[in-house]
């Protein structure tokens, strides 16, 4: 048939030729197939990239250069250094400690370098033995549920999965953690043990800093003994030379064009004017405040329900995630520093690292004005650490002020006591110190070098993307308190948020930079799995999202499991947040049971922990007989610990187990993600 048609086509006039030949059809099918594959693969990759919030794109030429030049060994060798201090930091403290160790090394003729493991090829650790009297120190924080910090994740996985021969590597580890959390310093302990397993030599025993107590004291004590061990190991002595050498030098930028000056951006210049997806810790999204309303019905405290508009941002979140909010310091405090130091806050400046080999050229985005640095980049409200006291001594003109600073900067028992009482107990920040020691007048550029970076604040997301795909909700208590010196300290983020009230007119809506941080706090994969949620106060936040998601599933006709919520507050008529919503979920059957504890509505205080003890049968029925999930959100210091003890007791009594068996049962629940906690101290 095909051959005869072919012959016929050749012998007839052109006007009778078919419009599409068999070859044309074949080519068309191939083109469509390729186009289909290309389109959907690209779409899949795009979707995948949207789900990776920590992918950080290069924002400048310098960051590209840093990534390509990742050999810290080459830098050590080319600059005659023998000490490298790595940091795994989520809030900046570990990075600060690393810098202090590297600086101290000069007193022992060990020229040091601070390094971010995320920017280094950590496999080069095997070559450390090629450098005479070399030492690698790791300042490593643990955060979340025993997780490594974002910048230490690759290094942690390299240690887990690799089997490098680290014989000849000399090392020491200092961990930063919080004892109120179950996984106290877990990452630092693992790294310390794993390095030894791979053949490295521990020069000094691991130090464990507790942020719930006095992590500064823990660090200083460990650091002093560290150098004793270093001297013994290498047969060296302290030179005795003071090393109060500036890490950064001041650069006058008065001639810099306005368009080249940072005005609060986290990393990339003009990033808030020209927003680029994906959004992350170095590239936050400037979100509009869509809703900001009061949740408390009465009383002198405030709790805000805030909704961030993410429509058009391509940002995606899951129920249980956290949102990071970048705050700014109050203009009142910033102006006060300028007044106390008689400084021009609108002068443009830059701080440039004196170490030309350092990948960190500036302590914060530069150039900028002093006002911008103090407003957006520097923490001026927390308690300064002892090294800042030491650096301020030279600026005190009054001998009494000098002696006080020297005492607090010392590691003597008297010095530690004075620092604890005058700084920590009385809750003084840098503004208070400058007010109370009036002769202390540091150069403002040096003060900017000394102060830690202002960190973003994390909030549990209190909404479900199934119900609110275009907005992120948070539930935040306004932080205000009076200190022992009769000053009123205000929470940086919550007091800023309280001022960002959306308007109903055509004026520009208030905005604030945010990004999403992924969490392991997740609903069970199956909607039929029963769950118990324990969240007093703002601990209710993630459970509001959980309930919304299950309610959405129920309305779609899917079967949902039992949902039991334990909520507590002071008074029903004062701070029972989301009351109407919760009662509605009870009425429609989404929320199976709502157990309420109002601590101050009766003579004897009543908490959610009391209700848990009373409902032991219900607890065991869900977590024991039905293999349900249990979630806790709120205060880590007391509530979460008390809940854990009660759960162990219930498992022991209702499950007829010994104490050790009950502890193992609860531990297995945690490993299976059936017992999850989202807590803070």
From TrEMBL:
Membrane topology: Single-pass membrane protein
CC per GO annotation: cytosol; endoplasmic reticulum membrane
Gene3D superfamilies in the cross-refs: 3.40.50.360, NADPH-cytochrome p450 Reductase, Chain A, domain 3 (1.20.990.10), Nucleotide-binding domain of ferredoxin-NADP reductase (FNR) module (3.40.50.80), Translation factors (2.40.30.10)
SUPFAM superfamilies: Ferredoxin reductase-like, C-terminal NADP-linked domain, Flavoproteins, Riboflavin synthase domain-like
Residue numbers binding NADP(+): 301, 538, 599-600, 605-609, 642
Protein family: Belongs to the NADPH--cytochrome P450 reductase family. In the N-terminal section; belongs to the flavodoxin family.
Reported function: This enzyme is required for electron transfer from NADP to cytochrome P450 in microsomes. It can also provide electron transfer to heme oxygenase and cytochrome B5.
Listed HAMAP family: NCPR (MF_03212)
Protein name: NADPH--cytochrome P450 reductase
